[in-house]
Here is the input.
Amino acid sequence: MKCFFLWLMLLARVAMADASLPLKIDHAWVRAVPPSLTDSAVFMHLTNTGDAPLRLTGATTPIAAMAMPMVTTRKTVQGVEVLGMKGVDSLEVPAHGELTLKPGGDHLMLMNLASHPRIGEMVSVTLEFEPGHHKLTVTMPALMDSEQ
Here is the structure.
């Protein structure tokens, strides 16, 4: 079963809207969620091959009304570490560096779902980058956390 999901990960497709964007995207996937949830999340590994930093500022997708970059927050409350999240204007992919969006870490939150991604379904997400108003469409599988 795990081989099937690895195969789906290989099917993730990237369509460059602007070939000048020096970016490589690997292991892109969206979290499969039941109809009772209103939000999901997108995860991936981004590599900037260029000489200047890039900022992931947002995204659009037919399955959600809104997409927002989120950072994971950590604070200690009565000796216990509490994880949370906070919306930010952008997530940076440093020049000649990497950014990993992962469960329990920074991610792209899909809010107010119009449809709920099911395991194995392919989802199209158009990522937005600055500077330069670049857009990049990635088609990725819907998976569960345990399949990663």
The longest strand covers residues 64-77. The domain at 2-147 is CATH 2.60.40.1890 (Immunoglobulin-like). The helical segments are 2-11. Confidence is low (pLDDT under 50) at residues 3-10.
